[in-house]
């Protein structure tokens, strides 16, 4: 920190690239207009290294899902966004819970505007809407500079919408398959005559039936943000998000994948194990305050405070066992009533700017962040656990709702994290840049979860180093090495908590910024290692003990985003895991596809500029899961095709049509667990949008 502060003062004293009397740069509201609104790429991002860099200058793999891409293909929730992203797989294990993987490992690193959000559950609950965001950045590999703890998989950074300098407004109505109805509004305007105070509000209401029997999701989303220019150098932003999911007929667990004789099951696509009374409600409130201040001479400081409450309440039926192929039966009931209350407080302060050293100007960012997460949950177990469900009654929804007073259990624990970070980008020569830094984190948890201690305490400093060489004005070569760690509370055979998970990523590749930076392309090879992940190893009395296991993935990927030619936008990526193995060379995490391909593209017809047409294609290779007893469930490789068309009726009104899974491919949503359910068959929607 002393070194960083001395560099600030050195920067004040020596301004090699600007006259000493150059005026301070004023903070101002950024207006996004024109072509920028309709591009599939971004010029700059801070998602990989704390510093504002172009994608080409960033020595790590980054994909950007822009507002234009989300609007064109109706990517209205985070599952749809990540399913269209290079190298990410979406593991929809249930209707209300989802896991994600990248480079073979679970994605647990999520951020809002670059501020990390510790994941207490390890999965995403509910249906996270994307109407609130200008874009979503995905950085693959370990990301120790941006995330205090996590896995060497990927970091997902949600970039919130902010007020615009001029008044803008839009409203849309969507009607789709299974009575899907969605209304969305977005308005931004100045709130005083001078324009020094501006606000923006987003509202969403959506409800639908489903292809799944008895399932009926509903959500309400509201977002408001106000920005006030307190002076020429100070900008205050205050915002709040309310997001509620009210889902009926939800699945807890999913469908059995094999019969008692070992043969695979094959149910109708809409089959569900939910009961008529099943429900899962979640409500999330997020408040944030952000203060930006210009220190002068190119230096600025930003302080951010986030407060998040996440509540869920549910009545659920889990169905377990192995069904009999003839006559049915073999499945058993497990009803439970569950409620959870999670509170998170996140604080972050950072300083960044430029300093002079060796006759050149360099970039520096440093700061501190702190988080506290509290979780209280309770399970009220229903009467009748273990009751056999004869015939096909496990799938008809008629299991009677029991009283939930058979037993009670739950969790009560707290997690705290403190992090100091430092990142610098050294301008070694005109064509050589070095990005380096470190992140020093202490994480500690206390409490219990379902009779097991959640105590963990660990501290670690993780390095980041990357180098970029500009081959010419369009092409760069890069290499990077990053680390990350994740404390864990699971105990070994002696009762001692396991050491933290440790992740490492080594990566090298080429990046190009073409056509005046309108098109970004990259190619990378990578090796990612995750050590000491807890795996159940046995029992001590009634308690499970664990051992740490190691895994390593290697592979390559290609990513492209932006304007390929006039009127032709594309976002595409290919990822190939050439290896995903354990210490003894055995294949691990076989539910992860070794090859994925994502292509999203649109084209504005030259002879009819009011018409835009496009398609999306997603393909993945075979996956499998071991059911035990020599039985293996397999999902064959598959691809799904989507189509879109948008016609601008006039400068304010447009009609768009989207078709999904046009080839009507029947496939499972995931083999992350030993149960699964089927993805949606062919479906579509029509949207009428008014904009001003």
TrEMBL record:
<dbReference type="GO" id="GO:0015344">
    <property type="term" value="F:siderophore uptake transmembrane transporter activity"/>
</dbReference>
<dbReference type="Pfam" id="PF07715">
    <property type="entry name" value="Plug"/>
</dbReference>
<keyword id="KW-0798">TonB box</keyword>
<dbReference type="InterPro" id="IPR000531">
    <property type="entry name" value="Beta-barrel_TonB"/>
</dbReference>
<keyword id="KW-0812">Transmembrane</keyword>
<dbReference type="InterPro" id="IPR012910">
    <property type="entry name" value="Plug_dom"/>
</dbReference>
<dbReference type="Pfam" id="PF00593">
    <property type="entry name" value="TonB_dep_Rec_b-barrel"/>
</dbReference>
<keyword id="KW-0813">Transport</keyword>
<comment type="similarity">
    <text>Belongs to the TonB-dependent receptor family.</text>
</comment>
<keyword id="KW-1134">Transmembrane beta strand</keyword>
<feature type="domain" description="TonB-dependent receptor plug">
    <location>
        <begin position="55"/>
        <end position="153"/>
    </location>
</feature>
<keyword id="KW-0998">Cell outer membrane</keyword>
<protein>
    <submittedName>
        <fullName>TonB-dependent siderophore receptor</fullName>
    </submittedName>
</protein>
<keyword id="KW-0732">Signal</keyword>
<dbReference type="InterPro" id="IPR036942">
    <property type="entry name" value="Beta-barrel_TonB_sf"/>
</dbReference>
<keyword id="KW-0410">Iron transport</keyword>
<dbReference type="InterPro" id="IPR010105">
    <property type="entry name" value="TonB_sidphr_rcpt"/>
</dbReference>
<keyword id="KW-0472">Membrane</keyword>
<keyword id="KW-0408">Iron</keyword>
<keyword id="KW-0675">Receptor</keyword>
<dbReference type="InterPro" id="IPR037066">
    <property type="entry name" value="Plug_dom_sf"/>
</dbReference>
<dbReference type="GO" id="GO:0015891">
    <property type="term" value="P:siderophore transport"/>
</dbReference>
<feature type="domain" description="TonB-dependent receptor-like beta-barrel">
    <location>
        <begin position="246"/>
        <end position="662"/>
    </location>
</feature>
<dbReference type="GO" id="GO:0038023">
    <property type="term" value="F:signaling receptor activity"/>
</dbReference>
<dbReference type="GO" id="GO:0009279">
    <property type="term" value="C:cell outer membrane"/>
</dbReference>
<keyword id="KW-0406">Ion transport</keyword>
<dbReference type="InterPro" id="IPR039426">
    <property type="entry name" value="TonB-dep_rcpt-like"/>
</dbReference>
